[in-house]
Amino acid sequence: MLLFFILGLLVHFVFFGSIFDIYFTSPLVHGMTPQFTPLPPPAKRLVLFVADGLRADTLYELDENGNPRAPFIRNIIMHEGSWGISHTRVPTESRPGHVALIAGFYEDVSAVAKGWKENPVGFDSLVNESKYTWSWGSPDILTMFAKGVGGDHIYTYSYDAESEDFGAHDVTKLDTWVFDNVKEFFHAARNNRSLFSKVNEEKIVFFLHLLGIDTNGHAHRPTSREYKDNVKVVDDGIKEIVSMLEHFYGNDGKTAFIFTSDHGMTDWGFHGAGHPSETLTPFVTWGAGIKYPQKVSAQKFDDADVAPLMASLIGVPFPLNSVGILPVDYLNNTDLFKAESMFTNAIKRKKIIEMRKHFKHNLFFFRLLSESKQLNILRKARSYIKQRKYDEAVSLCKELIHLALKGLSYYHTYDRFFLGINVVLGFVGWTSYAALLIIKSHSNLTRGVSKEVKKPSHLLPCSFIAIGVLVAFFLLIQDCPWTYYVYCLLPMPIWYAVLREFQVIQDFVISLLTFPPSQLAGYLFVFTLGIEVLVLSFFYRYMLTAGLTAFACWPFITQLWTRAKSISLSWIFFSLLLAVFPLMPVVGRKPDIFLVMGAGLLVLLLSLSVVTSLIKRKDHFINEELLLHLFQMLSIVLSMCVVYTTHDSLRKKQGLPLFNQIISWITLGKRAIKLNKLMLLYQVIIFGPLLSFLKKLFIN
């Protein structure tokens, strides 16, 4: 039994690790050369403002008095630049959002192991391609674009991580700190000849990361006065920075500005998922190379990919792994420049798919985009540019880019189905083997079976060895990593062990056929329905209500209702009470501390009634049981105090008390221990009816 337990842990550990090879593979491709547009860019410098956690609706909507919440940005929208709504992807976290903005590719999901704080694989970005970059803001964001970058052309200025306190009195200081330090930087540049020379170079970037809005959203919710006032603080700060830069550079018209956000936030103050409040963010751009606003009856633009737009504005190479499409409709430049920029963008996508195809060693290639078709499209596009048919050239380049993106997705997910099939085979095999061992050990299926030892056949092991050799050869010719051998070969011994128990399988099938068909079908229907309800509850919460309602009816189909009506009524009441909660909203706009305290008091009253009944018991009383209930009541009282004092401290903007932090960490450790017990209870609940069914079926 110990060996079986160890093997089970090994199997689950291996297949759990397969998740990272199936879904968390890095999208990065290395070994490419930079590509840039050969024509002069419209801007010498780019200023990127990223308001962390800013929702699109909060920026664009009017305040209670009908006035713009961000007057300066609204003036830009009306008179100076282009604007829209940008779309982020899951996970809507700060690090993935900034990677998409500045590096141009969707997050390397292998960074989940780093808590979305840093990338285990180095990547190229606009910051790296620039001649100089100066950045101000949070240390979590700035350092990831400077880490591992060769040279000394990236400069970061950040505050201490301790300043990012959700419970601080005024977190707008995170944004005012950035604005003040930018002003001091340019003031110092006037008196520093070396620095003055650098900030007047071409292809430079100023990156301002503004964390105050996100911090206020977490602490006070996006609908709070603090969150909305922080938007006004950011708007005023941007206005001052833009004015200072125009004065510093003598209004030369060579500065491009972009204002956007990395992600939004739910009404409850969270982000990370795919709700529109988290994925819809503002996008405003103005300055050199950007179209002025135009009044039209209707317009339709595709999503703007920010990284290639920024690279095109200042004339730096597109980031090597950027998968974005240059939004030429935002550019205020010649048709030749747009066509050449799009041509460069198309060549970039072609290089990425070629490198991906080269490194993967796939047996089957992406048929929609052969090498000859790529070359024909590029030749045709170049011919159109020479003939000054710029619109046709842009259309052809877009077609090639879309096909290249499909091919990139094809090669990136090439092994997903193959590995998934092997993992499923392994799990199904292990589950079957465990079930066979249970049936063999706890049933009378083997009764009456001859105990004569049969001479083992060599056909079965030889067949599995041959299949294993073929699988290994298949992986070898594809130059697969060693982990693929583990995932693909591990199911072999598992299914060999399953098929060795052929006699048990045969007896099990015969026993099932002797069971009443209607009752057997009823059991199978209930098991299948229960599993489907659990699966559907991940997508539709009200399915939990249906399941709990079914639980409430359980006493009526058993003898419990006639034997213990009081217990049955309690079961029905609490099952229906729990069934109400999945129908309630997941989150609300404001925390209701009275509801939390009321729930705590209700639990205390129920616990008190249990303790009273224990004290009145006439039989042998176990003191440890009473102490356990009293300790649980004390834990509830302590939790209520921690919740109330935390809410009061945050409301007064006094931060989180140290005592509350200590109690919270202790509670977390205790909950982790309880989680293991709950998992055991869950297994008993799930497999209990099945074991009961097997007991009725096989055991005398």
UniProtKB/TrEMBL annotation:
Main localization category: endoplasmic reticulum
Coiled-coil features, chain-numbered ranges: none
GO molecular function: mannose-ethanolamine phosphotransferase activity
An annotated GO cellular component: endoplasmic reticulum membrane
Membrane topology: Multi-pass membrane protein
Highest taxon, organism lineage: Eukaryota
Record-annotated membrane-spanning stretches: 417-439, 459-476, 482-499, 520-540, 546-562, 569-587, 593-615, 627-647, 680-698
EC number annotated for this UniProt entry: 2.-.-.-
InterPro entries on file: Alkaline_phosphatase_core_sf (IPR017850), GPI_EtnP_transferase_1 (IPR007070), GPI_EtnP_transferase_1_C (IPR017852), Phosphodiest/P_Trfase (IPR002591), PIGN_N (IPR037671)
Subcellular location as annotated: Endoplasmic reticulum membrane
Pathway membership, UniProt: Glycolipid biosynthesis; glycosylphosphatidylinositol-anchor biosynthesis
GO annotation terms (biological process): GPI anchor biosynthetic process
EC class of the enzyme, as a word: transferase
Keyword Endoplasmic reticulum: yes
Pfam families, per database record: Phosphodiest (PF01663), PigN (PF04987)
Signal peptide: none
Keyword annotations: Endoplasmic reticulum, Glycoprotein, GPI-anchor biosynthesis, Membrane, Transferase, Transmembrane, Transmembrane helix
Residue ranges of domain GPI ethanolamine phosphate transferase 1 C-terminal in the record: 406-669
Annotated PANTHER family: GPI ETHANOLAMINE PHOSPHATE TRANSFERASE 1, PHOSPHATIDYLINOSITOL GLYCAN, CLASS N
UniProt record similarity statement: Belongs to the PIGG/PIGN/PIGO family. PIGN subfamily.
UniProt name for this protein: GPI ethanolamine phosphate transferase 1
The species this protein was found in: Ursus americanus
Source organism phylogeny: Eukaryota, Metazoa, Chordata, Craniata, Vertebrata
